[in-house]
Amino acid sequence: MNKKTIITALITLFILVSCSDDEEPIREQPTEQTVIFFMPWSTNMTPYFEQNIADFETAIKGGLLKNERVIVCISSTTSRANVIELKQEKGQCIRDTLMFYNQPDFTQRENISRMLNDVRAIAPARRYSLIVGCHGMGWLPVSTSRARSQYHFERDDVPQTRWFGGFTSEYQIETTTLADAIGDAGMRMEYIMFDDCFMSSVEAAYDLKDVTDYLIGCPTEIMIYGFPYHLCTRHLVGTVDYAALCQTFLE
After folding, report:
1. Which segments of the chain does DSSP mark as H helices, in order?
2. For residue 131, how far is the Cα from the chain centroid?
3. In contact, 66 and 101? CB cutoff 8 Å
4. What is the predicted pLDDT for the residue at 214?
5. What CA–CA distance (Å, rounded) separates 188 from 210?
6. C-alpha dihedral over 87, 211, 239, 194, to 10 degrees?
7. pLDDT of 230
8. Is the separation of the CB atoms in 42 and 171 below 8 Å?
9. Measuring CA to CA, how many Å separate 36 from each of 9, 152, 203, 223?
10. Cα–Cα distance between 7 and 11 in angstroms, integer?
11. Could you report the per-residue pLDDT of 84-100, keeping only the tens digit for each?
């Protein structure tokens, strides 16, 4: 038997073994809950996003995760968004970068829906929750005109607060777009928490009523630092305690 025949025989044997019906492909089992932290491009908030993630890690280090997973989608620049898993290992929390998007336009429903579907493929769960971190202006339509009064976040003589998206319209997301994207993905949320200003209006709640059981938001501005995740993450992961979460934020 010559060398070519041996190689052909080995390849054939490998194919037969690989295609055996005796073994089913390994499928990842759903966990109880996947928490999705969505941080679209928000112009000046990347350092605060990093602090939010670090605070989340502090909570996870204490052995918080039992049968839950935490996935972060963060736009580090206008042209790139990273999908990261926060993993609990040997008393520490590590960041595992799973994938990234080039030129992610999260103002479009299909791109948010794609991100949600990717997360479901990566971290399937029985329950999904969504935390949105960015600037916010509630249900108000995205403005295409500059002929308007000054937004609160454009002031440089007061503490900075948030908007739903970035400073300009090409980075701002309508609440209806978010609702449509969640609906397209078929991932009704246990809760949607907005770490953004002005997101607890009845109009925003109405827009999102068909895609979440609970809406957590603030009727006024939120300081740019955001929620104290090192203190309140334990109320967001596992069995959700809405009263304790809100009380922790207020305190």
Report:
1. 3-18, 46-61, 109-122, 175-185, 202-208, 229-232, 242-250
2. 6
3. no
4. 97
5. 8
6. 70
7. 94
8. yes
9. 48, 28, 23, 21
10. 6
11. 999 998 889 999 999 99
